[in-house]
Amino acid sequence: MSADRVPATSAEPQREWCSLRRPEGALLWLIIVGTAARLAVAWALGLGNGESYYFTSARHLSLSYLDQPPLALWIAHLSLRLTGSVDPLTLRGPFILMFGGTTWLMFVLGRKLFGPWPGFYAAAVMNLSAIFTIPVASWVQPDGPLMFFWLCCTLCLAHIFFTPQLKRPMWWWSLTGLTLGLALLTKYHAAFLVAGAAAFAMSQPPLRRWVVHPGPYVALLIAAAVFSPVILWNAQHDWISLQWQGNRAMATRGCWPPES
Question: In 3D, which of 186, 181, 180 has the Cα closest to residue 72?
Fold first, then answer.
């Protein structure tokens, strides 16, 4: 066989896929370099004030907590139990890896709505943002898991709303409910996903058909089931967490609880 007709090896498509000329390759390197840099920073820096507070809370496993839902603290608690270590890198590791997934989800969402390169640019800009690239992406706090599951839920909704002739709609609505419930388990802010999706669907005549479809209501039931540990904990503690969070949105003269 002549040299000019040697068949391409299997490594060549792999190298092409990893090329910076392709959005998928650029995304891969963005995740690898970003994750490595965050792991180095996590190893070099001690826990901050907020992280120390979350670490203290995570040592005591509970259905929920005063100031927030429990998922981020469950993750930190599991890391402590599995490794037996309390060093900053061990605690931050799951959150750093999760942000790699968040970067990928941002790319997939942008690719679905606008195309591959816009999806990469959205992921890159998120990684270059000062608030996202270190605090949210590295620190032990609820914002990292919230972003991950928020994007999971948004991606499910985008698939439902923008896929012509959607197949298995109940499966997609169930997945939406699961990811919404997990987002609610990280921060109460995830409730805005429900309000935003409902407002968008009602503003688009082709999407109003979902109002009479069982899918959204099944999704809400699944989300409520996933969120039920928070409801149970609050019911056992006089709804103290919901009262405290609600009070933070209101101006008071002194410390919480406000003076009567």
Answer: 186
